[in-house]
Amino acid sequence: MSNNSLQINVGKQIQKIRESKGLSQQDLAAKCNFEKSNMSRLETVRVNPTLSTLVKVAKALDVSLIELFSF
């Protein structure tokens, strides 16, 4: 799996989990203390997230970090 396809899958997984929990991008961004535009970029793979960013997102979604990689 290439780096780019990994990032695409993680972005899609974040979006899928967020939507399953009934959260908007704005809601999740606020929980992570991010701007909404940053959350959008994360889900659409216009940014390469750091491990620290992914940990914040996982905590805000109330899932384990590994669930962001379960696709």
Explain what the structure shows.
With 71 residues, the chain is mainly alpha-helical. Helices cover 63% and strands 0% of the residues. It is built from four helices and no strands. The two termini are 12 Å apart. The mean pLDDT is 93.
Total number of helices? 4
Our measurement of the CA-to-CA distance between the termini, rounded to an integer number of angstroms, reads: 12 Å
Order of helices and strands, N to C? HHHH
Shape type: globular
Mean pLDDT: 93
Please sum up the structure shown.
The chain has helices at 3-20, 25-32, 36-43, 51-61. It has 71 residues and is mostly helical. The protein is globular.
Give the arrangement of secondary structure elements.
Blueprint: H1 3-20, H2 25-32, H3 36-43, H4 51-61
Helix pairs in contact: 2-3, 2-4
What keyword list fits this structure?
71 residues, mainly alpha
